[in-house]
Amino acid sequence: MARQLYTAQLEAKLLLSDPAQCYHLEFSIPELDAFPFTPGQFVSTVATDAAGKQQTRAYSIASAPAQNRFDLCVNRVEGGFFSNLLCDLEPGQTVQVHGPHGLFTLRQPLTDSIFIATGTGIAPMRAFAQHLFPPSGDCCRDRHIWLVYGTRYESDIYYQDFFEKLAAEHPNFHYLSSLSRAQESWTGLRGYVQDHVAGILKTRSNGFHPPAPPAEPASFDIHAYICGLNNMVSCNRDQLIETGWHKKQVVFERYD
Predict the structure, then answer these.
(1) Which runs of E-coded beta strand occur in the chain?
(2) In what order do the strands lie in the sheet with 112-118?
(3) By C-alpha distance, which of 55, 31, 34 is closest to 44?
(4) Regarding beta strands 22-28 and 6-17, do their DSSP bridges make them parallel or antiparallel, or are they unpaired?
(5) Can you list the domains of the chain with their CATH numbers?
(6) For 40, left (φ over 0), alpha (ψ -120 to 50), or beta?
(7) Which of 243, 232, 24, 220 is nearest to 106 (CA)?
(8) pLDDT per residue over 202-232, tens digit each?
């Protein structure tokens, strides 16, 4: 069955990192009054390349639902057809999309949660955060949310101002950014994301309440949501399961 294609029009474009050539792209779908999706899902973009072959690429939505709009976070990739096409778009230009798709969504009932991301894996985490902490209030006052974001360099910390503002406004939102190749001037966390996830689990056990290894989904009191390259996802998933977590507590999306 053919998928329903929509024409997405670029409304705004922001360069998040010049060294990484990462762009925040804001789209609308003029033919729709609303484009409903669940935070964490993705859209697939469709276009024909220079050889006449139809190409499709999936991108996580980097925003919570808002009328007929959605945002993407895209890195330019050398020789990449779709990354270059999207990064070269200017406001008013369009691309074909279908969706939403995907099961990388917040499990219900909402529990304490650790969001773990690297690179453009931050996109669905931004969608989660916008959904859980809207401007009108806090949808999860009785839940603690940790975001652990890892990248190589300070210039590649995407959406830093947004997440720091959320953490300042909401005491139950904890934002940790860590650099694996930090310069001497960097005063924040260093190392890989998995190094800091272990610390969160220890702090939570000491400062909040220790999680008992659950046998059934209904008893889960914490989940981890991981998005990034395969090696990072596997490393964090294995680490959590080795500490006694049930595999259903670990929700992940790989993009390589």
Answers:
(1) 6-17, 22-28, 42-48, 54-60, 69-75, 94-101, 112-118, 145-151, 173-179, 189-190, 222-228, 250-254
(2) 189-190, 173-179, 145-151, 112-118, 222-228, 250-254
(3) 55
(4) antiparallel
(5) 6-101 (2.40.30.10), 112-254 (3.40.50.80)
(6) left
(7) 220
(8) 877 655 444 444 444 446 899 999 999 999 9
pTM for this predicted structure: 0.92
Contacts 24+ apart (CB under 8 A), 88-94: 89/10, 89/13, 89/25, 90/10, 90/13, 91/10, 91/11, 91/12, 91/13, 92/9, 92/10, 93/9, 93/10, 94/7, 94/8, 94/9, 94/10
Q: Is the peptide bond before 109 cis (omega within 30 degrees of 0)?
A: yes
**Cis status, amide bond into 91, omega within 30 of 0:** no
pLDDT in tens, 67-91: 999 999 999 998 889 999 999 999 9
Report CA-CA distances (Å) from 142 to 103, 139, 172, 221, 245: 25, 9, 8, 12, 22
Buried b (16+ CB within 10 A) or exposed e, 192-216: bbbebbeebbeebeeeeeebeebee
Greatest pairwise CA separation for the chain in angstroms:
59
